[in-house]
Write a structure and sequence with these properties.
This protein is mainly α. Strand 1 (about 5-10), helix 1 (about 20-30) and strand 2 form a beta-alpha-beta unit. The model has no long low-confidence stretch (mean pLDDT about 95). The strands form two sheets. The chain has a three-stranded parallel β-sheet with strand order 1-2-3. Helix 9 crosses helix 10. The protein has helices at about 20-30, 55-70, 90-95, 100-105, 110-115, 125-140, 155-170, 215-220, 240-250, 255-260, 265-295, 295-325; strands spanning about 5-10, 35-40, 80, 145, 180. Bound molecules: tryptophan (TRP). Tryptophan binds near residues 8, 43, 134 and 148. Tryptophan binds near residues 8, 46 and 148.
Length: about 325
């Protein structure tokens, strides 16, 4: 096992992960735990940056955690945990807020998007400081690589800047992390509008992994393609067909060109049917495992507590060093 560390986080907002979350993120988490010391976090504190329903947040956090395990994140090999269980995340965030410029934070495009959507006046201060909490997540584990989507690149740049700033002001404390952006399946597209990314905000074109198999199959079989008949991987000219090829290739561990060749002359029907089968071959046992985990909340809580304890072992001394370096007097 290498000593190199990987950290990633996912928000517990949706009840069910969607196919894009799995293929674009969680699948890579599972792979990376083979070669890295991996920390995977359900970032429930990040969910407090927008209005939340307490009962829903609790359920979503448990469900997200169960889904990470069901997808193959193995507590024997990596450290899956819940952000709020490790107080050091909130504590380091405060230190990093003092190092972040107001202007610098104002330039975060995700904040600009999210705050203008709901009206800038109603956006919370938490939404504004969200990237510093994310930076704390990463820096507490002296992380080397952070698997994230393209949309998080700017937050990762800020994290790198804050690590460098802290190190040069107060002495070498944090590892400056690298983004680990997976290109091929980084973008699974909406099945009804293959010009947009698959997103739970457009449920019609989005496959939720915990949905009934019939619903999943129907969504894939009714995916929008184009008026030709030729199966070819060409994301610009044929986004719908290419998206189905990407999904099928990822789930059957083949490359898209190989998969495309297999459908030459057979039309879109066969491709859709096989893509639906491949998704169900993953989703059905996945959903069964999630149900099993959620049916035993005592055991789930035990695994969560164990993850939190192991995360804290790494995070606590890093926070203590940071506190000491900035001039806080140790409590004991
Ligand atoms: N902001 C990330 C997202 O929305 C989630 C996240 C929080 C994260 N903390 C993180 C991702 C740390 C990577 C590392 O996708």
């Amino acid at each position: 096992m290498s000593e190199r560390r990987v950290f990633s986080g996912i928000q517990p907002t949706a009840g069910s992960f969607q196919l894009g979350n799995y293929l674009g993120a969680i699948r890579h988490w599972v792979r990376l735990q083979e070669t890295y010391q991996a920390f995977y976090c359900v970032v429930d504190l990040h969910s407090l940056t927008v209005p939340q329903d307490p009962a829903e947040l609790r359920t979503a956090t448990m469900t997200a955690y169960a889904q990470i395990l069901a997808a193959g994140v193995d507590p024997a090999r990596s450290v899956p945990f819940v952000q709020s269980h490790v107080a050091e995340h909130a504590q380091l965030t405060w230190v990093l807020q003092g190092l972040t410029g107001f202007g610098e934070a104002s330039r975060m495009t995700q904040f600009k998007d999210k705050s203008t959507r709901g009206g800038a006046e109603s956006a919370s201060v938490g939404l504004f400081t969200y990237p510093m909490l994310m930076a704390a997540d990463i820096l507490l584990y002296r992380t080397h690589a952070v698997p994230v989507g393209e949309d998080q690149r700017q937050h990762l740049e800020l994290t790198r800047d804050l690590a460098q700033r802290f190190n040069s002001r107060f002495g070498d404390t944090f590892v400056v992390p690298e983004a680990h952006i997976v290109k091929e399946t980084a973008k699974i597209l909406d099945l009804q509008d293959p010009t947009a990314k698959m997103s739970k905000s457009q449920p019609g074109g989005c496959v939720f992994l915990l949905d009934p198999p019939k619903v999943i199959a129907k969504k894939i079989r009714s995916a929008v393609t184009d008026s030709e008949t030729e199966v070819r991987f060409d994301p610009a000219a044929k986004p719908g067909v290419s998206n189905l090829l990407t999904i099928l290739a990822a789930l059957t561990a083949r490359d898209v060109e190989t998969v495309a060749k297999a459908y030459q002359g057979s039309g879109y029907g066969a491709l859709k049917a096989d893509a639906a089968d491949a998704v169900l071959a993953f989703a059905e046992p996945f959903a069964a495992r999630v149900r099993e985990l959620l049916d035993d909340p005592g055991e789930l809580a035990r695994v969560m507590a164990d993850g939190a304890a192991r995360a804290r072992e790494v995070a606590a001394p890093v926070l203590a060093t940071a506190y000491q370096r900035v001039g806080l007097v140790p409590a004991g």
